[in-house]
Write a structure and sequence with these properties.
Oligomer: single chain
Keywords: Membrane, Transmembrane, Transmembrane helix
Distance between the termini: 96 Å
InterPro entries: MFS_trans_sf
Transmembrane segments: 61-83, 95-116
Structural class: mainly alpha
Number of helices: 6
Helix content: over 70%
Order of helices and strands: HHHHHH
Shape: elongated
């Protein structure tokens, strides 16, 4: 048996090299990741400020109790990303994680939008 007959044809090798050249990845996505994290931290810090004002004015909370609530909320938000990343990577995959996250976000936000819009409509009706 000839060694030349066992080696793959030259066109297959060049095709493999072309496929390897086409593969992208590495550090190309880092600017999007950094921007996403920056905006997430900005939103998180803004939410902490607004939450403290809301809890102070609407619920008359203050001092140590207010700080404890905000620390627990902030810590749980930061910690839950670790188990979420594990479940996403190990069991669900990107598509199902995004789909379930979008559905959960929609279901959480839907009652607040309905409640706010119904209060807004009822104020208009009472004003007439």
């Amino acid at each position: 048996m000839d060694i030349e007959s066992l080696s793959p044809p030259a066109h297959q090798e060049s095709r493999k090299q072309a496929l390897l050249k086409k593969q992208r990845g590495g550090w190309r996505a880092i600017k999007y990741i950094i921007a996403n994290e920056s905006f997430e931290k900005l939103a998180s810090m803004s939410l902490i400020g607004n939450l403290s004002v809301y809890l102070t004015t609407k619920y008359n909370l203050g001092g140590v109790f207010l700080v404890n609530i905000i620390n627990i909320w902030s810590g749980s938000c930061n910690f839950l990303s670790i188990p979420g990343a594990f479940v996403s990577d190990a069991y669900l995959g990107r598509f199902w994680t995004l789909l379930l996250g979008s559905i959960a976000s929609f279901l959480v936000n839907l009652p607040s939008h309905l409640f706010i819009s119904s209060r807004h409509v009822s104020r208009r009706v009472k004003a007439r």
